[in-house]
Write a structure and sequence with these properties.
- The structure holds 2 protein chains of 2 kinds.
- In chain A, about 40% of the residues lie in helices and about 0% in strands.
- Chain A has 4 helices and no strands.
- The longest helix of chain A is centred in the N-terminal third of the chain and has 18 residues.
- Chain A is globular, with a radius of gyration of 14 Å.
- The N and C termini of chain A lie far apart (about 30 Å).
- By secondary structure, chain B is α/β, with parallel strands linked by helices.
- In chain B, about 35% of the residues lie in helices and about 25% in strands.
- Chain B is built from 4 helices and 5 strands.
- In chain B, strand 4 and strand 5 form a beta hairpin.
- Classes of the chains: A mainly alpha, B alpha/beta.
Chain lengths: ~120, ~110
């Protein structure tokens, strides 16, 4: 599989996750963040988890055991809070009243690298 | 100018618990969108409160022990330590004003803006 950089998913996984995010945003009538680097980072994290764990576990949580959490399913995207109340603390899907919401449901991908330090 | 410094499980005790001044800890992860949003705010806090508060960042992917010990769930989580004790917690990407309000509450005297 071709490498897109350290600790990143394959291009295929990224594209699948991007497609899911765009479709789900439209279906849930939510919008991506006005800062597209936020959206790109989250989609990358979801795609990587899908490859590593078999499920798109939320990249904005800390887990004692990622494998067990992926099996449990609660925080697999779209997570239960998103499906029930349109709450996405990862800021991937934002309701129009959110001050950070943009107007797009299509990803404008921004080049990002994995950071071990910020 | 002072920068927020990166710490690890191995340096947490020395850098945070044994600090003479309050410490703001930013628990973050690499592919967490809101973590990238709050990082510049945390950096501004580090510069504004030089000598009054120490600002450190810990990557929870690389340092699960500390995250586990402090019960981190949603990230980013910002935690304030004073005298080796956790005294406040903020979850999520918050505006700078929210952080300064929390910090000021824990200072004996107000900091100059």
């Amino acid at each position: 599989m071709e490498s897109r950089g350290y600790n990143k998913s394959s291009q295929k996984s990224f594209e699948l996750m991007r497609h899911f995010a765009e479709t789900y945003a439209k279906r849930s009538e939510t919008f991506f963040c006005s800062d597209p680097s936020i959206t790109t980072a989250v989609i990358e994290g979801l795609a990587l988890h899908k490859e590593q764990l078999g499920a798109p576990l939320c990249p904005c949580r800390f887990y004692e055991d990622k494998e067990a959490e992926a099996k449990a399913g609660y925080w697999n995207c779209p997570c239960v809070p998103m499906r029930e109340r349109k709450e996405c603390h990862c800021m991937l899907f934002l309701t129009p009243d959110n001050p950070f919401a943009g107007t797009s449901q299509t990803l404008q991908e921004v080049p990002l690298e994995y950071q071990t330090t910020q | 100018m002072s920068a927020a410094i990166d710490i690890a499980d191995a340096t947490f005790e020395a850098e945070v618990l044994r600090s003479d001044i309050p410490v703001l800890v930013d628990f973050w992860a690499p592919w967490c969108g809101p973590c990238r949003m709050v990082a510049p705010v945390v950096q501004e806090i580090a510069e504004q409160y030089v000598g009054k508060v120490k600002v450190v960042k810990i990557n929870t992917d690389e340092n699960p022990q500390t995250a586990s010990q402090y019960g981190i769930r949603s990230i980013p989580t910002l935690m304030l330590f004073k005298g080796g004790q956790k005294v406040d917690v903020v979850v999520g990407a918050v505006p700078k004003a929210t952080l300064t309000t929390i910090l000021e509450k824990h200072f004996d005297t107000p900091a100059e803006a």
